[in-house]
Amino acid sequence: MQDNSSVENTPKKKNQTKEYLKNWVPYRIKRYWVYAVVTAVSLIMPWITIGGNHLFLLSFDQKKLHLAGVAFDMQELYLMPFLLMLLFLGIFAITSVGGRAWCGWACPQTIFRVIYRDGIETKLLGLHKRIKNKQQKPDMSKKENITKKIIAIFLWSILALIAAADFLWFFVPPEDFFAYLSNPTEHMMLIGILLSLAGFIVIDVVFIKEDFCVYICPYSRVQSVLYDDDTVMAVYDPIRGGNIYEGKGYDREKKYDKTKELVADNPTAECTTCESCVTVCPTHIDIRKGLQLECINCLECVDACTSVMGALGKPSLVRWSSEKEAVRHEGKTNFFRPKVIAYATVLILVLISLFVMGSKKENMLLNVNKTTRLYKILDNGVVENDYLFLFTNTDSKEHKYFFEIVDNDDIKIMRPKKSFKLGAGKKKKKVVVMQTSKELANNTRKDIPIPITIRAYAEDDKELITVLRKTVFVYPRIDLVKK
Q1: Does the pLDDT at position 18 exceed 70?
Q2: For residues 306 and 312, what is the distance between their CA atoms, to the nearest angstrom?
């Protein structure tokens, strides 16, 4: 075992460590600030609009996606794959670099538990004695504690309703949400979803607790394949602290604890076996056992060990570092390794693609469908085809629309004859009749489809709002035309 005592316990080293401890801000406090920012963003974002469009809204009611103040119709959801790629690649990249940083620093489950356990139960009601002891459960045989528990659940139920409503605001805009609530009998499904979400949040936070992270959340199961030797996480230094456990895997047993003497082959071990890193852990693990899927990277154990070892004039045995640096002491953590560079490159390419595709948004959508009647033959050999055009104005203002055939002068639009107005976000169906008096085909065996191109445009902004659509004009057998 490496002897660090000659270096670590010098007066100069102790003074440096104690000075560091004076200026040290616990990760717990930093996490609270991050939680406040995440909460504020999630609550404020649904209310922010740009030109009448939301920053992000996936409205199934309006069948629209709002992204960065631009509204996309459901027919323009070619952007969704890019958003999903950003989401999953982003999570993979964050995990590769910082482990389960999402779980400990931004996950709603963790934020909710901190608000309920540390804020309501501990600080407000005193149901728990200390935030730093998350293993000791309150004595529920006392009537006073039962009352406090009921009050805690009641207060959290109110917050759960707000959290559920906030989640729904990303799918039902707040202005519609409150309008629907004012007429509850016609929107029972919305109210049912709201109450179900709130109920789930209450059950999850109050009763399931961190078991959700340990047993239910699939993220903990995939994290291990994303880790490498340079992934930053909460890591215990066994060289300085000593091997508290022996063996491998989850069956490892403790070599010593508070009630046992240090083993003879580890006389320089610095771990005091105070168990502070264990009692503070929300998922009830011992970080000294090594990497475990239950660890959510909240760094509470780092804070606990820093306090204890700092009082002894020594640096913490548990650090936010990598196994390469903190466990094997093989050099500094390499943040710019090939895997991280590859993730960053792909994320940048996907982001660029998202902006490029988003910039090609059409301010008008047009669906062209033929009716069930292929054609109609009129007097003098005139052939008529019927169509159903569905126009959608995806722009933010009203426009006057019309259309024309651009690649066949022999086919004329007979109906409608005039342009029409369509308000912002509105849709309109138009029955379109096309005719030809020319002989477009001379086939005695079958009908012939003639390809044509329709150009639809806004008369008041023809250059910007123009779309082209391909369709066919069905010309009948020549013997039917000449009857």
Answers
A1: no
A2: 10
